[in-house]
Design brief:
Elements (H helix, E strand, L loop, with lengths): L2 E3 L5 H10 L8 E5 L5 H5 L4 E4 L5 H8 L4 E4 L7 H18 L4 E6 L8 H14 L5 E6 L11 H7 L1 E4 L11 H12 L7 E5 L7 H11 L5 E4 L6 H7 L9 H6 L6 H9 L3
Parallel strand pairs: 1-2, 1-4, 2-3, 4-5, 5-6, 6-8, 7-9
Helix pairs in contact: 1-7, 3-4, 4-5, 8-11
This protein binds NADP nicotinamide-adenine-dinucleotide phosphate (NAP).
C-alpha cells in the first residue's frame, strides 16, 4: 500500500520525497505529478509516478487508488476560489479511491488570519475533517523564503535593513524542516486526527535578522524603521499570525529546527 504524494514536482514535494526515502523503500512511494515530462526525476530514484492534475478530476481517483496515506500538498493557484475547487476535487477523489489516511498541508493559525488565503485553508481543513478519512493536518508557518523581498544582498552591502515600523516577530520555517517533519509523520504510526502547527520554536525579530546578516557578511547591519517604505508584503504579514510558536515541528522532526542564519544563507550569499 503506497504513500502517495501530490505536488511532488514542487519544491516542498521534492524535499518530502528526499526525506521520506530515509525511512521507507522507494517502492512504497508514488509521486503524483501534473507534467509527466518530469517522471524521469522520480523513476531514477525508484519511485513510481502517476499523473494527477487538480483541474482534471478523472486523473485524481486513478492517481490515489490504493493509497495507504495520501499527502495532499495545497495548490499554488493564485485564485483562492479556483484553489478551493481544486482542493474539493482532491478530497472527493481521496474518498472515492479509498485512501487510508489523508494528510493536508494547511497554513499556521488560520483562525487568526483575516484574508482569503487563511479562509481557504480553514475551509479546506473543514472539508478534510468531514471527509470521514482519518486525517492529519500540517499547518505551515510562513516559509522563511519571504525574506527574499527584503533584498538581503543590498541590505548587507549598505548595512541597513529597512522595514516598516511595527513589533515584528516571525515564526517562519525552512521548507527542509517541514519536509523532514512530514516524512517522519508519513513513516510512523499514531498521527491520525492530529493537527500540528509547524512553526519555528521561537519567533525571530528583524534585529535578530540583522545580527545574522552581520555574521554572514563583513559589515554590521542595523534595522531602520521607515514609515515611508512601501511593499505589499508588510500588509500581508500584518494580516496573518506570524508570531505564535509551538514545539510541534521540532517534536515531529526529532531534531532542532534550522537556525535563522542557516535558513537565510541562500538569499544572503547566493552561490
Ligand atoms: N507557508 C508558506 O509560506 C507558503 C509559501 C508558498 C506556498 N505555500 C503553499 O505550499 C505549497 C507547496 O509549496 P512549494 O514551495 O512546493 O510550491 P511549488 O514549488 O510552486 O509547487 C507546487 C506544486 O503544485 C503542483 N501543481 C500546481 N498546479 C497543479 C494542478 N492543477 N494539479 C496538480 N498539481 C499542481 C505543481 O506542479 P507543476 O510542477 O506541474 O507546476 C508543483 O508540483 C504551495 O502549493 C502553496 O499552496 C505555502
Amino acid at each position: 500500500m503506497p504513500i502517495v504524494i501530490t505536488g511532488a514536482s514542487g519544491k516542498l514535494g521534492r524535499l518530502v520525497i528526499q526525506q521520506l526515502l530515509k525511512h521507507v523503500p522507494p517502492a512504497e512511494i508514488v509521486a503524483c505529478i501534473r507534467n509527466m515530462e518530469h517522471k524521469h526525476n522520480f523513476k531514477k530514484l525508484g519511485v513510481a509516478v502517476r499523473c494527477c492534475d487538480y483541474d482534471q478530476p478523472d486523473s485524481l481517483k486513478q492517481a490515489f487508488l490504493g493509497a495507504s496515506s495520501l499527502l495532499f500538498i495545497s495548490s499554488p493557484h493564485h485564485d483562492d476560489d479556483v484553489r478551493m475547487l481544486q482542493h474539493t476535487r482532491v478530497i472527493e477523489a481521496a474518498q472515492q479511491a479509498g485512501a487510508g489516511h489523508l494528510l493536508y498541508t494547511s497554513f499556521a493559525f488560520p483562525e487568526d488570519g483575516t484574508i482569503s488565503l487563511t479562509r481557504l485553508h480553514a475551509a479546506t481543513e473543514r472539508a478534510v475533517r468531514s471527509s470521514g478519512i482519518p486525517y492529519t493536518i500540517f499547518r505551515h508557518a510562513l516559509y522563511t523564503d519571504f525574506v527574499e523581498i527584503l533584498d538581503l544582498q543590498t541590505t548587507m552591502a549598505t548595512g541597513v535593513l529597512r522595514v516598516q515600523p511595527g513589533d515584528w516577530r516571525f515564526n517562519s520555517v525552512a521548507r527542509l524542516d517541514l519536509a523532514a517533519a512530514i516524512a517522519m509523520t508519513l513513516a510512523s504510526p499514531g498521527h491520525e486526527h492530529h493537527t500540528y502547527e509547524l512553526t519555528a520554536p521561537k519567533a525571530w525579530t528583524f534585529e535578530e535578522l540583522a545580527a545574522a546578516l552581520s555574521e554572514l557578511g563583513s559589515k554590521p547591519v542595523s534595522v531602520v524603521q521607515d514609515a515611508e517604505l512601501q511593499h505589499w508584503m508588510f500588509g500581508f504579514l500584518r494580516s496573518i499570525n506570524t508570531s505564535s510558536t509551538t514545539g510541534d515541528l521540532e517534536r515531529l522532526m526529532d531534531r532542532p529546527a534550522t537556525t535563522l542564519k542557516e535558513s537565510i544563507r541562500h538569499w544572503a550569499l547566493p552561490s
